Each structure stands twice: as C-alpha cells, then as structure tokens.
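call fold target=Ion channel
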Amino acid sequence: MWISLSAFIVRLWEYEWSYFSAFYFFFTSLTTIGLGDVVTRTPNFIIFNLAMTLIGLSVVGLCLAIVQAKVRLVFDRLIRSIDSQYRIRQIDPDVATMTLIPDEKEGIKR
C-alpha cells in the first residue's frame, strides 16, 4: 500500500516516469535492493525520496516485527506442549500408555 501511494505521488512529480517505473523505483528502494537503473532527475525529489524511503522502511520493519512475534508465539506454544509431554513421560514412562490404552483387567466399562 505504501509503495502504491508513494508511486502515485512520484508519478505526479517525475512526469517522465510511468506508474510502473515509480512503483519499481520505490519497491527497489524499500527492499534495499537499489539497482540504480531508475534514478531521479529532480534534486527536490531526492529529499522527498529520502523521507518516503525512511517512513517506508519503518513500516516494513514494523510489519516484519509483527510477523516475527506471531511466529515466536506459535513456536513458544509448541515448545510448551512438547515440554509438558516430555515431563509426563519422565515421571513414569508408562503414563502415556496407561492413559491411552485401558488395562486388560479393567476392560471397557459399559
């Protein structure tokens, strides 16, 4: 979304660029690829580009931090589940078997 908005604004400023060129320019800037095949010609735009890129990098960093936090939460839950199963088996190795398979003496109660 940020790249699309930035490309639309730049398209108004750099009249020689197509929307695709502006989008490509900001995409390569925000992903820090920066190939250099599309460059600005207006000196005032360089300052604007710097501001838009800094804001965009902050947004990208925030999105990556949110994804990282969600992935960490999933792995923490998984580790707690594995740890609890491990502790049950450390107490008595047959606990898992006893809780899942009834003893022959008990049978299935109806």
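return ok
The domain at 2-98 is CATH 1.10.287.70 (Helix Hairpins). The CA atoms of residues 12 and 20 lie 13 Å apart.
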